[in-house]
Amino acid sequence: MKWGCNNMLRWLTAIALSGSMAACTDNPTADLETYVKETKDQQRSSIEPLPEFEPFESYIYQANELRDPFTEPTFAHAPTSVAQAGGSGIKPDFDRAREPLEEYPLDSLRMVGTLEQDQDSWALILDTEETIHRVQHGHYMGQNYGKIVRVSEFEVELMEIIPDGLGGWMERQASIAISE
């Protein structure tokens, strides 16, 4: 049995490496654990205490003490002006069919001309969709139940029926002048 120099050298190198590896495997993360411990010791975080809240007071809803929210309120002393406004007799005719120009606010409509035929005067009204409508005395336009009372060469006069703010209705004059 001959041991060659090369074989012997190989065995000695293997023994030396295994010995050095054994020394390293005792605690391979010791330096990392030391760093983490030192970092944690340096940091002192302070957390503020939670604020104190007042306890919630519960409310017991008793419907017999309150007005039903789905019925109209009644007042013990109704103002006299409301009673007068409601009895004035002026109110819109809700049963009649609405006309096309009643869809538009009055200030969005423009008078662009007039026509006369057999002593009937017609006004030409342009709406916001660029459609021209022919109207005359007795027709309606605007969103406030405006009834045309007079058509002249230069303007259309209306009588509008508007809420008076007290539960009744009142009349208001309005007009649309021809635009150039």
Task: List the secondary-structure elements in sequence, H or E.
Answer: HHHEEEEEEE
How is the CATH topology of the domain at 95-177 named? SH3 type barrels
CATH architecture of the domain at 95-177: Roll
CATH class of the domain at 95-177 reads Mainly Beta
Shape: elongated
Would you tell me the structural class of the helices and strands? Answer: alpha+beta
Average pLDDT over all residues: 80
Rg: 47 Å
Straight-line distance between termini: 127 Å
Side-by-side strand order of the widest sheet: 4-5-6-7
Tally the helices: what do you get? 3
- Parts with pLDDT < 50 across at least 5 consecutive residues: 77-85
Strand content: 25-35%
DSSP helix fraction: 10-25%
Let me know the largest β-sheet: 4 strands, antiparallel
- Number of beta strands: 7
Give the topology.
Elements: H1 5-24, H2 30-42, H3 80-86, E1 110-117, E2 120-126, E3 132-135, E4 140-141, E5 146-151, E6 155-163, E7 169-177
Antiparallel strand pairs: 1-2, 2-3, 4-5, 5-6, 6-7
